[in-house]
């Protein structure tokens, strides 16, 4: 044994060749935490001290090579000063440089995933062989940073600027064939041949057939471009990447600037440039928010896992109502492997649901994501029916009939009589209280909400809603089924609108108020899109549908009359009264026309302005800040109330719900994180400026208390 640590062991395997193996004790994956980097340094020292070694193979005995840096260490690390961050990076880079400078040929054998720091480890060796099923990449930009263990330096020299920009700025995970094609790896083999292939490369180096030192010098030298080529490569990609990433995500463009700056430098100086750029990005609020988001997501996964342990098995599901949502649920369940019965009262409904599933599957087949046999299997696992024939075999039912409490009451009671006593009954209602729907059920303990978002196959969130009488088993089984469908479940308590719609409607309230006071709805959309929302509120209302929005608004007003009841007619009411339902019938705040590709395109409709004239009472031209404040304060305050009322268990649940459910700008981390970042005291101060607008703008007592005591939602 040459070295033995808790993450790394080094031993001689054959003919003077050493193997450095990553196997982080007590963890399911290898990651670059502080310990692993320290041990890599010590192991490299031990290797240097050995006499007569002929080569080194680096391996992992986990399913994946190394999944990346340990992100749980980022929050503390990034809290340090920029100088400390630079120093920290340079210290870590000394270790990677030492690996690169070892006095014999080095090869990494890549299995599973080698991402971020894991792939930077691979880049430090002379050669890379890769399992044909493995993936490699540098996804750091997804956390608002870029590679900091020499990745921008080595990759740009190894595969050229254009490819490096594509990999680093896109944060892509790249398959073996793609990696081989650009020269990021040198050979692709089956998993069980990895070490043999690595040893063969080392032997060839020692026989003089391969020149590993020339390889090394290429990585350590300057980028081989003349001034003109360099200008073309960097300037064009900067413009392209800036357009794609947008102003709110600075890391991809900064990565290019850093590569441009170090293009003419050799390794050690180039790494200094990278370290400085990295530290600058790590100190941005975007990085803090995106890292926070990653950690929140881990928390959610942990919670879901705990529920899954208590879950009953769902071998067969059923959905009631084959409409937009029912069809989507059937498709998603079947696609992910849980057969499902799809019941409707009308053949037309069933045809619609099946056609939707067929068209989604056809798209998958045409994109090469699925073959025709698999498509047939998926379709066959959806059983359409007009009666309750097989319901005795069903483990979980999703009710997705029309949003009407009376109809739902009848349908749920009827279903309860048809299923086994242990079957779980859920409702996809968007707004109706779960306790209300449970009232007339015989087994309310087996009932909860399972709120999907439209379109079901695209939207990641499922709210699992616990009623007063819902059992843990019902929640656990529903959470597990949502996971099996590939969704992110968040467990919330019952109230009108649950978490997401309860928070969304005050935001629409903010919108209605702005329009009433004279703001141009198109300007509001533009400002909120610039703020980071995928679409502005008027456009979103068109997508949701004015009838749905109006109905949900009424439920919310009844549930929270103190702040959500509005006696005045709003622009949304006007749209509804004029049959402008939005995208459904191609007319809402905007008009919708088909573009050349047959896709719906929104166009300005001057009629809208004429129609809403009677409800516009003011003539103020609002500036951006005003618009943002009037839109965001009601949304944020309602999120605070959801946390205070125990609708969500934790701040992280609330923020993730908004990001996954309504596309809250991820780089802002969520509503509560947004308040934290502004400073709770500053937020309260800002809200107080708008107090005249009514209770939607009035902070809770607890929030005022937090403002006084300096408490935050996170950390
Ligand atoms: N559309 C959305 O954006 C959205 C999002 C989340 C949740 N939801 C909720 O999902 C539910 C369904 O909404 P949708 O938009 O799919 O409606 P939809 O009108 O498209 O579909 C409803 C379907 O239910 C069928 N139906 C009516 N009575 C039935 C019964 N007794 N048994 C079986 N089927 C019956 C109808 O024939 C129709 O096919 C509602 O509760 C809605 O609030 C909708």
TrEMBL record:
Gene3D superfamilies: 1.10.1040.50, 2-enoyl-CoA Hydratase, Chain A, domain 1, NAD(P)-binding Rossmann-like Domain
Alphabetized CDD domains for the sequence: crotonase-like
Entry EC no(s): 4.2.1.17
3-hydroxyacyl-CoA dehydrogenase C-terminal domain segment(s): 497-592
PROSITE patterns reported in the protein's UniProt record: 3HCDH (PS00067), ENOYL_COA_HYDRATASE (PS00166)
GO molecular function: 3-hydroxybutyryl-CoA epimerase activity; delta(3)-delta(2)-enoyl-CoA isomerase activity; enoyl-CoA hydratase activity; long-chain (3S)-3-hydroxyacyl-CoA dehydrogenase (NAD+) activity; NAD+ binding
Domain called 3-hydroxyacyl-CoA dehydrogenase NAD binding: residue spans: 317-495
GO annotation (BP), single: fatty acid beta-oxidation
Pathway(s) this gene product operates in, as recorded in its UniProt entry: Lipid metabolism; fatty acid beta-oxidation
Catalytic activity: a (3S)-3-hydroxyacyl-CoA + NAD(+) = a 3-oxoacyl-CoA + NADH + H(+)
Example of a GO cellular component annotation carried by this entry: fatty acid beta-oxidation multienzyme complex
UniProt-recorded name of the protein: enoyl-CoA hydratase
């Amino acid at each position: 044994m040459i070295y033995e640590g808790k993450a790394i062991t080094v031993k001689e395997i054959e003919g003077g060749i050493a193997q450095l193996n990553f196997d982080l004790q007590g963890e399911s994956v290898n990651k670059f935490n502080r310990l692993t980097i320290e041990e890599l340094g010590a192991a490299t020292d031990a290797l240097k001290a050995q006499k007569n070694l002929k080569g080194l193979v680096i391996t992992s005995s986990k399913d994946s090579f190394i999944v990346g840096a340990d992100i749980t260490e980022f929050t503390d690390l990034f809290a340090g000063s920029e100088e400390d961050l630079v120093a920290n990076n340079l210290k870590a880079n000394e270790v990677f440089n030492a690996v690169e400078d070892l006095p014999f040929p080095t090869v990494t054998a890549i299995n599973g995933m080698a991402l971020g720091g894991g792939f930077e480890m691979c880049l430090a060796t002379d050669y890379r062989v890769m399992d044909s099923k493995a993936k490699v990449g540098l996804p750091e930009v997804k956390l608002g940073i870029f590679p900091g263990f020499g990745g921008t330096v080595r990759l740009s020299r190894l595969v050229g600027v254009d490819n490096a920009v594509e990999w680093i700025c896109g944060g892509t995970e790249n398959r073996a064939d793609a990696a081989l094609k650009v020269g990021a790896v040198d050979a692709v083999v089956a998993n069980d041949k990895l070490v043999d292939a690595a040893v063969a490369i080392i032997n060839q180096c020692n026989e003089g057939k391969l020149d590993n030192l020339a390889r090394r010098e290429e990585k350590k030298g300057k980028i081989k471009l003349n001034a003109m080529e360099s200008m073309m490569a960097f300037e064009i990609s900067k413009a392209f990447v800036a357009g794609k990433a947008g102003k709110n995500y600075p890391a991809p463009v900064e990565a290019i600037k850093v590569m441009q700056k170090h293009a003419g430098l050799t390794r050690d100086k180039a790494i200094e440039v990278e370290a400085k750029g990295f530290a600058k990005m790590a100190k941005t609020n975007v990085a803090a928010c995106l890292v926070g988001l990653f950690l929140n997501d881990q928390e959610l996964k942990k919670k879901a896992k705990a529920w899954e342990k208590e879950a009953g098995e769902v071998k067969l599901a059923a959905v009631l109502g084959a409409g937009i949502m029912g069809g989507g649920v059937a498709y998603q369940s079947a696609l992910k492997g849980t057969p499902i019965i799809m019941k409707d009262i009308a053949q037309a409904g069933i045809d619609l649901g099946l056609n939707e599933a067929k068209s989604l599957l056809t798209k998958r087949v045409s994109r090469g994501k699925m073959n025709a046999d698999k498509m047939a299997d998926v379709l066959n696992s959806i059983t359409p029916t007009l009666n309750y024939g097989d319901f005795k075999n069903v483990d979980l039912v999703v009710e997705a009939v029309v949003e009407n409490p009376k109809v739902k009451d009848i349908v749920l009671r009827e279903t309860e009589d048809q299923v086994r006593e242990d079957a779980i009954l859920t409702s996809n209602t968007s707004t109706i209280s779960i306790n209300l729907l449970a009232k007339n059920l015989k087994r309310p303990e087996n009932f909860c909400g399972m709120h999907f978002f439209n379109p079901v196959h695209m939207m990641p969130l499922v709210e699992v809603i616990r009623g007063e009488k819902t059992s843990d088993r019902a929640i656990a089984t529903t959470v597990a089924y949502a996971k099996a469908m590939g969704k992110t479940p968040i467990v919330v308590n019952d109230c009108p609108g649950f978490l997401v719609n309860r928070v969304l409607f005050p935001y629409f309230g903010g919108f209605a108020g702005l329009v009433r006071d004279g703001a141009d709805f198109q300007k509001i959309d533009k400002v909120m899109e610039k703020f980071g929302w995928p679409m502005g509120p008027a456009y979103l209302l068109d997508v949701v549908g004015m009838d749905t929005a109006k109905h949900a608004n009424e439920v919310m007003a009844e549930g929270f009359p103190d702040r959500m009841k509005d006696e005045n007619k709003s622009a949304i009411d006007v749209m509804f009264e004029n049959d402008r339902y939005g995208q459904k019938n191609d007319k809402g705040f905007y008009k919708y026309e088909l573009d050349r590709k047959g896709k719906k395109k929104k166009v300005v409709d001057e009629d809208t302005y004429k129609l809403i004239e009677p409800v516009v009472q003011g003539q103020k031209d609002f500036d951006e800040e005003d618009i943002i404040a009037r839109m965001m304060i009601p949304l944020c305050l309602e999120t605070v109330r959801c946390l205070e009322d125990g609708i969500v268990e934790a701040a992280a649940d609330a923020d993730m719900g908004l990001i996954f459910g309504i596309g809250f700008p991820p780089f802002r981390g969520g509503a509560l994180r947004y308040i934290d970042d502004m400073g709770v005291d500053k937020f309260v101060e800002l809200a107080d400026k708008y107090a005249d607008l009514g209770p939607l703008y009035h902070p809770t007592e607890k929030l005022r208390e937090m403002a006084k005591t300096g408490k935050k939602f996170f950390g």
